[in-house]
Design goal:
Layout lengths: L1 H44 L1 H9 L3 E13 L4 E2 L5 E2 L8 E12 L5 E11 L9 H6 L8 H6 L14 E11 L2 E10 L8 E7 L4 E10 L7 E13 L2 E15 L2 E11 L31 H18 L6 H8 L1 H8 L1 E5 L4 E5 L3 E7 L3 E12 L6 E7 L8 E10 L5 E13 L8 H10 L7 E15 L2 E14 L34 E12 L5 E4 L2 E4 L6 E10 L7 E14 L5 E16 L42 E12 L7 H4 L4 E11 L3 E13 L3 E10 L3 E10 L3 H7 L3
Parallel strand pairs: 5-23
Antiparallel strand pairs: 1-4, 1-12, 2-3, 4-5, 6-7, 7-8, 8-9, 9-10, 10-11, 11-12, 13-14, 14-16, 15-16, 16-17, 17-18, 18-19, 19-20, 20-21, 21-22, 22-25, 23-24, 25-26, 26-27, 27-28, 28-29, 29-30, 30-31, 31-32
InterPro entries: DUF5686
Pfam families: DUF5686
Length: 736
């Protein structure tokens, strides 16, 4: 009994001691939290002032990049798009490295790559678009300012302060002073926020080290997460960020891996331990120049596999599996996958695109096919030759077109293309209705909305970029012929009739078509985007995306010469702007005003046409100026004009800012969008169209409700369906 009493007494004393120590620790933390909160407040309050001081410091930054592929599927979507077998002699890129310089000042906004290196299991197969895949496949997120410009709400900025929760984690003492550590995380689940930790100097209230983590949440374009680590160094009482580390973790088509980028100031990082080594004796695709000490054990194994491969190939025991795969699967190679042929000792490629392009149905041609071939090189000129034929049931001759494209004046990002042939186009060559949608409506619903005409043409397009200006010249000489329906109705329908192929817009065009004629036109486009950045790779300057406004001017002239009957002058001025509204998403504005200042003879083909929708489905616009220039309820050619026009498009994407504040909706991650479209012409007056929509439904679908009003009298309400999935982004980022 006495023993149990002693044990109980000792246990009681132990519990009391723990409680006493806990109370002391809690009191100590409360004492620490008061000055820590003051430091945090000063840091937020002085952030803008320190940012201005930092921007005045000019330094050269070095950028390095590595890509690690940790796992890959049995069938590999390789760089050229060819599916390789499970065991490939050609192999897979394991690690790539790029190094470059960023000029950090106000006078020169350019980026240079001075070294490109690669090692892994790639043989006789050159890198395609090295800058795109090596330096950063997610080119939007190269530096913190770029990340912020792409609408991520960074912590430690006063305007974003209320969007985050901050908690004090403790203080760290060092020779440099006392530092406070905090943990921060977003208050809601809106995908534009970060979580992470920060270390703040208590004496100056400046950030000494910052770690950020962003989940994808439909923001990072197929990257699963992004980790950012920033180290600062004290220079004259200012903590200057001298080292950035970006780590992208991705999982794409059964690939898993990471992409590591580091950006650092050489002068300030001399004694700083980088996250991966600088390789000094590596040339692209020359693994023999590696020093053994520079390679990790896993990399040494891959290097030995490389040496074994070359020995077997020299002895004639193996062949390139690309050709073996092409021979083994000829149908797939010719029709769907294409073929990539190494040339010039494997330093460049000739890319042969697949022969099969698609098929469809319309009222003019009935069933048709698109067959073609494209051959292009991967050297600096990127010369491309393409041919396409379009056989159809109702036509007694073959429609075709050929094209030649190349790069020139690389320091000005020059591009040229010459196209010629005899084929059909939609009257609005922005293709307001996609062929696949028109085929579905024509074949199964007996409604043909696309209006086609035939054109025999020769066209040249040339463009260059000079500083913040883009200049584009387009010249075309053609013979235009109107077309009429070859079928009365769909073969699946026993009654009813197709709509006429030609819009009824007299006197320029009637339901029977327009008068055949020759036309010579000249287009000059000039756009200006101040403050734009550039990337220099292999002597070629490529403009990078910028969030500054874009101003553009277009002059189009119809030339009456060489049997050409068109005679007009058209001028268009416009502005495009994209801005983030803190915590509430992204706004995009597109405005343009145009007028035919002279119109002696303007065929309907040369009218100003506007992108409308008459089907159930939303579709991306092919307008070269803007991706939001589209009406949800406007009929395709009702407002076509040869007078003046004023066009405005505004869209605001809230992302998850509205619904994600409620726990019951946050898991669904529904994004909201709202906007307004406005059109005014001299002949049809005003068209007004507000719309509201929901996106990211089940991660794939989107739905929009629009209300269109014509001259404040006629109105129509429409429901449109679409897909969030962007095949262009998917194709761009899947080849890592």
């Amino acid at each position: 009994m006495k023993i149990h009493y002693k044990v109980a007494r000792l246990l009681y004393l132990f519990i009391g001691l723990i409680a006493y120590l806990s109370s002391i620790a809690q009191t100590h933390n409360q004492v620490d939290e008061e000055p820590a909160n003051k430091v945090l407040f000063r840091t937020l309050n002085n952030a803008n002032e320190f940012d201005k001081k930092i921007s005045k410091i000019d330094l050269h930054f070095t950028k390095s990049s590595e890509i690690f592929i940790d796992n890959y599927p049995s069938k590999i979507p390789f760089l050229g798009g060819v599916l390789l077998p499970n065991i490939s002699d050609t192999g897979l890129v394991y690690v790539r490295l790029a190094e470059g310089i960023i000029k950090h000042d106000k006078s020169l906004h350019r980026e240079f790559i001075y070294k490109l290196s690669e090692y892994g299991k790639v043989h006789d197969y050159p890198i395609i678009s090295v800058s795109q895949y090596l330096l950063n496949p997610y080119d939007r997120y190269v530096q913190i300012p770029t990340i912020e410009a792409n609408f991520y709400l960074l912590p430690f900025q006063w305007k974003n302060f209320r969007s985050y929760q901050y908690s004090f984690e403790g203080k760290i003492k060092s020779d440099s002073g006392i530092f406070y550590q905090y943990f921060f995380y977003p208050k809601n689940r809106f995908g534009s926020f970060f979580s992470g930790t920060v270390l703040i100097d208590s004496a100056t209230s400046q950030i000494a080290k910052l770690q950020l983590k962003a989940e994808s949440n439909n923001k990072l374009n197929l990257a699963d997460s992004l980790l950012i680590e920033i180290h600062c160094k004290k220079i004259k009482d200012i903590y200057f960020p001298f080292y950035y580390l970006y780590t992208f973790h991705y999982s794409i088509q059964q690939y898993t891996g990471r992409h590591v980028i580091q950006v650092y100031a050489e002068k300030l990082a001399e004694h700083f331990e980088h996250k991966f080594q600088k390789f000094t004796k590596i040339e692209i695709q020359d693994t023999a120049d590696f020093l053994e000490i520079e390679l990790t054990p896993k990399q040494r194994i891959i290097r030995e596999e490389d040496i074994t491969y070359y020995l077997k190939k020299e002895q004639g025991f193996i062949q390139d599996s690309l050709f073996k795969y092409a021979v083994k699967h000829p149908f797939k190679t010719i029709l769907t996958s294409g073929l990539n042929l190494p040339i010039r000792g494997g330093k460049n490629l000739v890319l042969v695109q697949p022969f099969w392009r698609g098929f469809g149905f319309n009222a003019v041609e009935s069933f048709y096919m698109r067959l073609g071939a494209s051959i292009s090189s991967t050297d600096l000129s990127k010369f491309t030759y393409g041919v396409e034929v379009r056989p159809s049931i109702t036509m007694d001759y073959l429609r075709w077109k050929q094209s030649l494209a190349w790069n020139f004046l690389h320091q000005y990002n020059g591009k040229g293309e010459i196209t010629f042939g005899n084929t059909i186009f939609q009257i609005n060559e922005n293709d307001p209705i996609l062929p696949i949608i028109n085929s579905f409506y024509s074949l199964f619903l007996n409604e043909n909305y696309a209006s086609y005409y035939e054109k025999s043409f020769l066209k040249g397009v040339f463009s260059i970029s000079i500083q913040s200006f883009d200049i584009r010249l387009l010249a075309e000489y053609s013979h235009r012929s109107s077309l009429n329906n070859a079928l009365d109705r769909s073969p699946f329908w026993k009654s009813g009739a197709f709509l006429p192929n030609n819009p009824d817009h007299p006197p320029a065009i009637t339901a029977n078509g327009f008068a055949n004629h020759y036309g010579m036109t000249l287009d000059v486009d000039i756009s200006w985007q101040p403050g734009r950045y550039y990337l220099d790779v292999n002597r070629r300057k490529t403009p990078l995306k910028s969030e500054s406004p874009t101003y553009f001017l277009n002059y189009r002239k119809g030339i009456k010469a060489l049997n050409s009957q068109v005679d007009f002058d058209q001028i268009t001025l416009g502005l495009q702007l994209k801005r983030r509204i803190s915590r509430y998403g992204v706004s995009t504005l597109d405005v343009q005003y145009g007028r035919f200042v002279r119109k002696s003879n303007v065929p309907f083909v040369d009218f100003k046409h506007f992108n409308g929708i008459q089907t159930l489905f939303l579709q991306p616009t092919t307008d070269r100026w803007s991706d939001i220039r589209q009406f949800r309820t406007l009929r395709y050619y009702d407002f076509s004009t040869d007078e003046y026009f004023f066009e405005l498009h505004y869209i605001h994407r809230f992302g998850g800012a509205l619904f994600n504040n409620w726990k019951s909706f946050s898991r669904l991650n529904i994004h909201t969008v709202a906007g307004l479209n406005l059109l005014s012409t001299e002949t049809e007056n005003i068209y007004f169209e507000p719309f509201l929509g929901f996106e990211n439904l089940f991660k794939i679908f989107k739905i929009q409700l629009a209300y269109g009003m014509e001259n404040w009298q006629k109105s129509r309400v429409t429901l449109r369906l679409g897909f969030n999935f962007n095949i262009g982004i998917y194709k761009k980022y899947r080849r890592i």
